[in-house]
């Protein structure tokens, strides 16, 4: 990648300014050693949620609330974010971050637990957008659950599919990177999905479920 392209990419990823609530959530993420989406990725998620006029969004991987704030900002004022994470302490940080961002308590439903244990309990076709930022090894299972959860015309998004450049590196790679390659192939070849791979953050794979 040329220096100009790297500079342009960095500029695009930092194009949207973040408020105090997002800075607070990012600081909690740094202290906890929890990765969080980049500003560019967050802005893309907000845009997609707004474009979908999303009322119901499911999030795999609450973290400390960075991505959740962006999703809520894009959703309808009466929209509800259902967010799943195996670590209740992280979800408590997210609750505080959402409150700091000005969202009422009923705008988010926090479910602690492993995603593949929780997702089967969510309603078929009940969601406008599913955002996946969980265990990369489980990516294909998240995709299958997302197809069940989404309404026709709904969106599924996967964070971190570039794996810091390892996804396209020909050297030997760990299992999670191989699973990301399987995910990319499955989304690209699916007859049920209309895909796009956005070069923001560490790669945001998005797809619309066809009607």
From TrEMBL:
Q: Which CDD domains match?
A: AdoMet_MTases
PANTHER family membership: PUTATIVE (AFU_ORTHOLOGUE AFUA_6G01830)-RELATED (PTHR43167:SF1)
- The protein, known as: O-methyltransferase
**Presence of keyword Transit peptide:** no
UniProt cross-references to InterPro entries, sorted A to Z: SAM-dependent_MTases_sf (IPR029063), SAM_O-MeTrfase (IPR002935)
Please tell me the species this chain comes from: Streptomyces albipurpureus
| Alphabetized UniProt keyword annotations | Methyltransferase, S-adenosyl-L-methionine, Transferase
């Amino acid at each position: 990648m040329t220096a100009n392209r790297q500079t342009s990419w960095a500029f695009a990823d930092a194009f949207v300014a973040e408020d105090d609530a997002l800075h607070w959530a990012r600081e909690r993420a740094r202290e906890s050693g929890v990765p969080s989406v980049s500003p560019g990725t967050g802005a893309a998620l907000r845009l997609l949620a707004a474009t979908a006029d999303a009322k119901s969004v499911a999030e795999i991987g609450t973290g400390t609330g960075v991505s959740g704030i962006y999703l809520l900002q894009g959703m309808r004022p009466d929209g509800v974010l259902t967010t799943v994470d195996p670590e209740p302490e992280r979800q408590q940080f997210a609750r505080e971050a959402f409150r700091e961002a000005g969202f009422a308590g009923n705008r988010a439903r926090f479910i602690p637990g492993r995603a593949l244990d929780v997702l089967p309990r969510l309603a078929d076709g009940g969601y406008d957008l599913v955002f996946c930022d969980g265990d990369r090894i489980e990516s294909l299972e998240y995709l299958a659950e997302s197809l069940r959860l989404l309404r026709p015309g709904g969106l599924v998004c996967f964070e971190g599919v570039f794996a810091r450049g390892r996804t396209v590196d020909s050297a030997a790679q760990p299992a999670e990177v191989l699973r990301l390659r399987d995910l990319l192939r499955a989304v690209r070849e699916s007859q049920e999905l209309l895909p796009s791979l956005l070069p923001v953050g560490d790669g945001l794979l998005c797809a619309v479920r066809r009607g």
